[in-house]
Task: structure prediction
Amino acid sequence: MLTRLYQWMLAKAAHRHADRWLAVISFMESSFFPIPPDVLLAPMCLSRPKRAFYYAFVCTAASVLGALLGYAIGYFLFDTIGQTILDFYGLGDKFSAFSASFNEQGWLIVFLAGFTPLPFKVITIAAGTTAMPLYVLVGASIVSRAARFFLEAALLWKFGEPMKRLIDRHFGLITTVGGILLVGGFLALKYIGGNHEAAPPPSPSSAEIAPPQQ
Result:
Protein backbone atom coordinates (compact mmCIF):
# COMPACT_ATOMS: atom_id res chain seq x y z
CA MET A 1 0.00 0.00 0.00
CA LEU A 2 2.78 2.45 0.93
CA THR A 3 4.55 1.78 -2.36
CA ARG A 4 1.39 2.62 -4.30
CA LEU A 5 0.91 5.80 -2.27
CA TYR A 6 4.51 6.78 -2.92
CA GLN A 7 4.13 6.31 -6.68
CA TRP A 8 0.82 8.18 -6.62
CA MET A 9 2.50 11.13 -4.88
CA LEU A 10 5.37 11.21 -7.37
CA ALA A 11 2.86 11.40 -10.21
CA LYS A 12 1.30 14.49 -8.62
CA ALA A 13 4.62 16.36 -8.95
CA ALA A 14 3.95 16.71 -12.69
CA HIS A 15 0.28 17.65 -12.26
CA ARG A 16 -0.80 21.10 -13.46
CA HIS A 17 -2.08 21.77 -9.95
CA ALA A 18 0.97 20.27 -8.23
CA ASP A 19 1.19 23.10 -5.71
CA ARG A 20 -2.37 22.38 -4.56
CA TRP A 21 -1.58 18.70 -4.18
CA LEU A 22 1.51 19.69 -2.20
CA ALA A 23 -0.66 21.71 0.17
CA VAL A 24 -3.20 18.90 0.56
CA ILE A 25 -0.57 16.24 1.28
CA SER A 26 1.33 18.51 3.69
CA PHE A 27 -1.92 19.17 5.55
CA MET A 28 -2.88 15.49 5.75
CA GLU A 29 0.60 14.31 6.79
CA SER A 30 0.43 16.36 9.99
CA SER A 31 -2.59 14.44 11.25
CA PHE A 32 -2.95 11.02 9.58
CA PHE A 33 -1.26 10.55 6.17
CA PRO A 34 1.76 8.18 6.33
CA ILE A 35 4.11 9.64 3.66
CA PRO A 36 5.84 13.02 4.21
CA PRO A 37 5.43 15.82 1.66
CA ASP A 38 9.19 15.83 0.95
CA VAL A 39 8.49 13.09 -1.61
CA LEU A 40 6.52 15.66 -3.62
CA LEU A 41 8.51 18.74 -2.64
CA ALA A 42 11.87 17.48 -3.97
CA PRO A 43 10.89 16.78 -7.62
CA MET A 44 8.85 19.99 -7.72
CA CYS A 45 11.85 22.05 -6.57
CA LEU A 46 14.05 20.33 -9.16
CA SER A 47 11.62 20.88 -12.02
CA ARG A 48 11.02 24.57 -11.17
CA PRO A 49 13.96 25.84 -9.07
CA LYS A 50 12.78 29.47 -9.14
CA ARG A 51 9.65 28.43 -7.22
CA ALA A 52 11.47 26.24 -4.69
CA PHE A 53 10.98 28.63 -1.78
CA TYR A 54 7.34 29.16 -2.69
CA TYR A 55 6.85 25.40 -2.52
CA ALA A 56 8.61 25.35 0.86
CA PHE A 57 6.21 28.05 2.09
CA VAL A 58 3.21 26.03 0.87
CA CYS A 59 4.52 22.96 2.70
CA THR A 60 5.09 24.89 5.90
CA ALA A 61 1.75 26.71 5.99
CA ALA A 62 -0.33 23.65 5.12
CA SER A 63 1.59 21.45 7.56
CA VAL A 64 1.01 23.85 10.47
CA LEU A 65 -2.69 24.00 9.64
CA GLY A 66 -2.71 20.20 9.53
CA ALA A 67 -1.13 20.15 12.99
CA LEU A 68 -4.25 21.93 14.25
CA LEU A 69 -6.36 19.12 12.81
CA GLY A 70 -4.16 16.58 14.59
CA TYR A 71 -4.60 18.56 17.80
CA ALA A 72 -8.39 18.58 17.34
CA ILE A 73 -8.39 14.81 16.78
CA GLY A 74 -6.47 14.29 20.01
CA TYR A 75 -8.57 16.77 21.99
CA PHE A 76 -12.07 15.87 20.78
CA LEU A 77 -11.86 12.47 19.07
CA PHE A 78 -9.04 10.53 20.67
CA ASP A 79 -11.11 7.50 21.72
CA THR A 80 -12.34 6.99 18.16
CA ILE A 81 -10.18 8.46 15.39
CA GLY A 82 -7.05 9.24 17.41
CA GLN A 83 -6.66 5.77 18.86
CA THR A 84 -7.23 4.21 15.44
CA ILE A 85 -4.44 6.31 13.91
CA LEU A 86 -2.03 5.39 16.70
CA ASP A 87 -2.90 1.70 16.37
CA PHE A 88 -2.18 1.91 12.63
CA TYR A 89 1.36 3.07 13.40
CA GLY A 90 1.78 0.46 16.14
CA LEU A 91 1.91 3.01 18.96
CA GLY A 92 -1.48 2.56 20.60
CA ASP A 93 -0.30 0.46 23.54
CA LYS A 94 2.63 2.78 24.30
CA PHE A 95 0.76 6.04 24.09
CA SER A 96 -0.56 6.31 27.65
CA ALA A 97 2.93 6.13 29.16
CA PHE A 98 4.24 8.57 26.57
CA SER A 99 1.47 11.12 27.07
CA ALA A 100 1.90 11.14 30.87
CA SER A 101 5.13 13.12 30.58
CA PHE A 102 4.52 14.68 27.15
CA ASN A 103 3.96 18.28 28.19
CA GLU A 104 7.10 18.42 30.32
CA GLN A 105 9.17 18.51 27.10
CA GLY A 106 6.30 19.21 24.72
CA TRP A 107 7.81 22.05 22.71
CA LEU A 108 11.04 20.11 22.21
CA ILE A 109 9.19 16.96 21.11
CA VAL A 110 7.04 18.94 18.67
CA PHE A 111 10.14 20.62 17.26
CA LEU A 112 12.05 17.38 16.77
CA ALA A 113 9.05 15.63 15.22
CA GLY A 114 8.46 18.57 12.88
CA PHE A 115 12.06 18.65 11.70
CA THR A 116 13.06 14.99 11.69
CA PRO A 117 11.42 11.79 10.38
CA LEU A 118 9.66 11.21 13.71
CA PRO A 119 5.90 10.76 13.07
CA PHE A 120 4.61 14.33 13.34
CA LYS A 121 0.98 13.20 13.29
CA VAL A 122 1.48 11.20 16.51
CA ILE A 123 2.88 14.28 18.22
CA THR A 124 0.07 16.60 17.11
CA ILE A 125 -2.52 14.08 18.34
CA ALA A 126 -0.63 13.78 21.63
CA ALA A 127 -0.62 17.56 21.94
CA GLY A 128 -4.41 17.61 21.74
CA THR A 129 -4.86 14.64 24.05
CA THR A 130 -2.72 16.27 26.76
CA ALA A 131 -4.21 19.75 26.12
CA MET A 132 -0.86 21.33 25.28
CA PRO A 133 -1.22 25.12 24.96
CA LEU A 134 -1.98 25.88 21.33
CA TYR A 135 0.65 28.61 21.10
CA VAL A 136 3.33 26.05 22.00
CA LEU A 137 2.18 23.65 19.29
CA VAL A 138 1.83 26.35 16.64
CA GLY A 139 5.11 28.08 17.49
CA ALA A 140 7.19 24.89 17.56
CA SER A 141 5.48 23.64 14.40
CA ILE A 142 6.20 26.84 12.46
CA VAL A 143 9.87 26.87 13.43
CA SER A 144 10.51 23.17 12.83
CA ARG A 145 8.51 22.76 9.64
CA ALA A 146 9.91 25.95 8.09
CA ALA A 147 13.46 24.91 9.01
CA ARG A 148 12.98 21.51 7.41
CA PHE A 149 11.22 22.49 4.20
CA PHE A 150 13.15 25.70 3.49
CA LEU A 151 16.47 23.96 4.12
CA GLU A 152 15.51 21.19 1.73
CA ALA A 153 14.31 23.68 -0.89
CA ALA A 154 17.52 25.72 -0.56
CA LEU A 155 19.73 22.67 -1.03
CA LEU A 156 17.78 21.49 -4.06
CA TRP A 157 17.72 25.01 -5.54
CA LYS A 158 21.48 25.33 -5.10
CA PHE A 159 22.78 21.86 -5.91
CA GLY A 160 20.04 20.23 -7.95
CA GLU A 161 19.89 16.51 -8.77
CA PRO A 162 23.03 15.42 -6.83
CA MET A 163 21.52 16.87 -3.66
CA LYS A 164 18.23 15.06 -4.30
CA ARG A 165 20.08 11.73 -4.51
CA LEU A 166 21.91 12.53 -1.27
CA ILE A 167 18.68 13.52 0.51
CA ASP A 168 16.87 10.41 -0.72
CA ARG A 169 19.67 8.16 0.52
CA HIS A 170 20.34 9.79 3.89
CA PHE A 171 17.21 11.84 4.66
CA GLY A 172 16.62 10.39 8.11
CA LEU A 173 20.23 10.84 9.23
CA ILE A 174 20.54 14.38 7.84
CA THR A 175 17.39 15.73 9.46
CA THR A 176 17.95 13.95 12.77
CA VAL A 177 21.50 15.28 13.15
CA GLY A 178 20.39 18.74 12.04
CA GLY A 179 17.54 18.77 14.55
CA ILE A 180 19.82 17.66 17.40
CA LEU A 181 22.38 20.33 16.54
CA LEU A 182 19.75 23.08 16.36
CA VAL A 183 18.14 22.11 19.67
CA GLY A 184 21.61 21.79 21.21
CA GLY A 185 22.30 25.36 20.12
CA PHE A 186 19.15 26.60 21.88
CA LEU A 187 20.09 24.75 25.07
CA ALA A 188 23.68 26.04 24.92
CA LEU A 189 22.49 29.61 24.56
CA LYS A 190 20.17 29.17 27.52
CA TYR A 191 23.00 27.73 29.62
CA ILE A 192 25.46 30.47 28.63
CA GLY A 193 22.90 33.16 29.29
CA GLY A 194 22.16 31.69 32.70
CA ASN A 195 25.82 31.82 33.65
CA HIS A 196 25.94 35.53 32.93
CA GLU A 197 22.92 36.49 34.99
CA ALA A 198 23.61 38.89 37.79
CA ALA A 199 24.37 37.15 41.03
CA PRO A 200 22.00 37.86 43.92
CA PRO A 201 23.38 40.28 46.52
CA PRO A 202 25.14 38.55 49.41
CA SER A 203 23.17 38.17 52.60
CA PRO A 204 24.36 40.42 55.40
CA SER A 205 26.79 38.83 57.79
CA SER A 206 26.06 38.48 61.46
CA ALA A 207 28.46 41.34 62.14
CA GLU A 208 26.47 43.64 59.84
CA ILE A 209 23.15 42.91 61.52
CA ALA A 210 24.35 42.74 65.12
CA PRO A 211 23.19 45.66 67.29
CA PRO A 212 25.88 48.19 68.21
CA GLN A 213 27.67 47.62 71.50
CA GLN A 214 26.79 49.99 74.34
Observations:
- DSSP finds eleven helices and no strands in the chain.
- The chain has one domain: 2-195.
- Residues 161-195 form the longest helix (35 residues).
